[in-house]
Amino acid sequence: MSDDKQPRVDTVRLQNLSRAFISSAGFFAAIDLELFTAISEGDNTVSQFASRANISEVNADRLMTICASSGLIHWHEDHFGNAPDVQRFLVKGDKSYAAAWLTFTRPAWENWGKLTEKLKNTEPPTVIGSYETMTVEYARRYHEATASVGFGSGRRFVRQVDLSSRNKIMDLGGGSGAYSIVAAQAHPNLSAVVFDLPPVVEVTKDFITSNGVEDRVSTQAGDFTKDPFPQNCDVAIMASNLPQYNREIITDVVKKTFDVLLPGGEMHLIGEMLDDDRTGPLDAAIWGLYEVMSNSTGVTHSRSDCVSYFEQAGFVDVNVHDFIPGILVRVTGLKPQ
Ligand SMILES: C[S@@+](CC[C@H](N)C(=O)[O-])C[C@H]1O[C@@H](n2cnc3c(N)ncnc32)[C@H](O)[C@@H]1O
Description:
The protein is of the alpha/beta class and 337 residues long. It has helices at residues 12-18, 20-32, 35-40, 46-53, 57-69, 84-89, 99-102, 109-112, 115-119, 136-160, 178-186, 198-210, 247-260, 282-294, 303-313, and strands at 73-76, 79-82, 168-172, 191-196, 217-221, 235-239, 266-271, 316-324, 328-334. A 7-stranded mixed β-sheet has the order 5-4-3-6-7-9-8, with helices on both faces. It has a two-stranded antiparallel sheet with strand order 1-2. Strand 4 (191-196), helix 12 (198-210) and strand 5 form a beta-alpha-beta unit. Helix 2 (20-32) crosses helix 5 and helix 10 (136-160) packs across helix 12. It binds S-adenosylmethionine. Residues 128, 131, 146, 150, 153, 173-176, 178, 196-197, 200, 223-225, 239-241, 244 line the site of S-adenosylmethionine.
């Protein structure tokens, strides 16, 4: 290609990236000020939103402009409308309202300004990272946030995986118990044990009771890196804690799961996994980097890393499925009869 045919290189992408945190700030402020709820309820012009949110018109215009530039809202002739994902997940009062999860990482905001120093930290990492200081109060806030997306993931899991001939699930790091609760509601003969850290299972119990499945979903307190697992299970699920641990720990957890599962049982590891060329998706890389904040051993695992953990453990029919494209991948395997 001659020089004049080379794509022109400019700073646009780099400039946008250098200020991406300002777009995040605009997104959080729009959630705080309930912009998307206002638009959904018909307060969908700058002046209507300004008066509803009790801010000046110029600031309302600034906020709506950044939201429109981020594709969160769209201008239709004489008013704004929400983008479809915003309408579904960010209208307050709706069952699918997910602001708790979408603002979950916001308190870490100030620490991200210190990332360079944190990357230079030479102290030895801790095994369970930020969970070392987990309290029941923190677990409650944490799982109000995870539940706002976790029950949707649980429903997707139950649609994708045929559990009709299964008897008992162990849900490792099950948190709110979303997957187990939804599975038990879908299959009246299925029971489940949600295994999680002691402060977390106190919160899990409340989710189980409020969803009316306490006759079949129970809890077991423990740390899956060192404590014994539930017995007599023919399904194991481990969802959304993969990048919090290094390869050795995940290898051990998958092997321990294989050893305790009943013959013919199945395991599903659902997590933020990198593509095998390790260049994305971005969300998997973000959660790997997130572990710098708690100085844990955690790393981002690729799809093929996870397949190898399953195969080393002895699982057969190991398969990889896109679960929530761009966010979660599901690796499955069977324990031979
Ligand atoms: C992001 S939440 C996911 C919860 C649930 N699986 C879901 O997808 O909705 C991660 C969960 O893993 C649990 N967890 C992480 N490390 C653990 C460990 N070593 N032992 C037991 N549970 C652990 C956390 O306490 C937390 O409840």
